[in-house]
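Appendix C reproduces, verbatim, an entry submitted by the partner laboratory led by Prof. M.T., so that reviewers can inspect both the input and the predicted structure.
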Amino acid sequence: MMQANSTPKSDNKTHFSFLRHLKESDKTPLKVLVLAAIIGAVVGLIGSLFMLGTEWVSHIRVSSVNQYVTNKWLIIPAMFVASALLAMLGYYLVKRFSPESGGSGIPEIEGALQDLRPVRWWRVIPVKFIGGLGTLGSGMVLGREGPTVQLGANISQMFYDLFRLKDNESRHTLLAAGAAAGLSTAFNAPLAGILFIIEEMRPQFKYSLISIKAVFIGAVTATIVYRLINGEAAVLNIGQFSAAPMETLWLYLILGMLFGVVGIAFNRFLLYLQSRFLAFYQNKISRFVLMGGLIGGSCGAIGVFAPEVVGGGYSVIHQMVANSFTITLLMVFFALRFLTSTISFSSGAPGGIFSPLLALGTLFGGIYGYAALELFPNYSIEVGTFAIAGMGALFAATVRAPLTGIVLVLEMTSNYQLILPMIITCIGATMVAQFLGGRPLYSVLLEKTLERSEKQATASNA
């Protein structure tokens, strides 16, 4: 009987021991993972609203001008004015309230992960969102992907502050999770969002079991919310291409090597233009805003008669893959978009460079594909496969994240059968860019930002 009575006491003791252990255990990892899921969902919502908002503003701009301006000679100046006003709004908000919201914002997040840059979410979130609506809606050659990454990381910092977490490791983990959620939302590509953090931000990202789980959770929940709002279709619905024949694979290696050179040229020209713009601005808000109006207005006016040259670039990708252009037109569009994209981004506008890079890569890949078709008529060549390979190759050469570029393009286009030529092209581009002394674009931009901050601090203390 005593043995029978001791069993419930033993069970109770075990039960209370479990409760005591649960109460005394560190619940920070669980809290971080739950917050990562919440942050991912919020980023998916905000990122979707940002995408829909930029499309709406752009549509309203074009439709309003076409509706109220009937004289064909006045359409171009009217579009210039409408686009200039939208762009000036974005530039003014950046210069007046949140200078760190200029550009894509990804270097700012890399700096924040190293505790070198502040994350002032109460300024960045409204300025980046509203300012981005202005500059992207004006028709400038910018992407919404970098801004969505910065928005995601700032939303993470907001939740970190609201829930009064104290440890810096949790802050870094949530910043990375928010950034991954941002890229996943922008491209509807969760795996690319995860790889971007692991590969591009590898010097800043602090690897641990919790941080990796948080990044996965943030990317997945963001993608789920995005697809609930926008559907499950790939961002670029360009159809399916055949797998590249084995005898053509060497052509993709040559293409990748050429992209290594193009990537180096793109980065250096962009950085040169940025230095020229900064020298002209002299930290004066009037010059900054007026230059933004000039660039935005020009892009809007150009879009009236040559829409392929301006805008984010998704439309020109669809037209290129659909064989809508001759090789001569492709060369002209490539040269013009090279100029408009570098000018738009280096001027300090709140906007990214991802989608313009993808469009440039598509155009150059298409040019190469037509040339290969002419030189090797006996090969079973589809020009579109070179265009798709080109998307990831230019990204790999400039950002120096080949694995992210490969997966990103495959997820965006659903052409997974092209993984082998994609790998060959991206690796070739990365190797040549590295051999020529090129450096990752975002790392260089962060270094220049830190140098300017140090000079300003030194001047203010003098």
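The domain at 244-449 is CATH 1.10.3080.10 (Clc chloride channel). Additional entries are available on request from the coordinating office.
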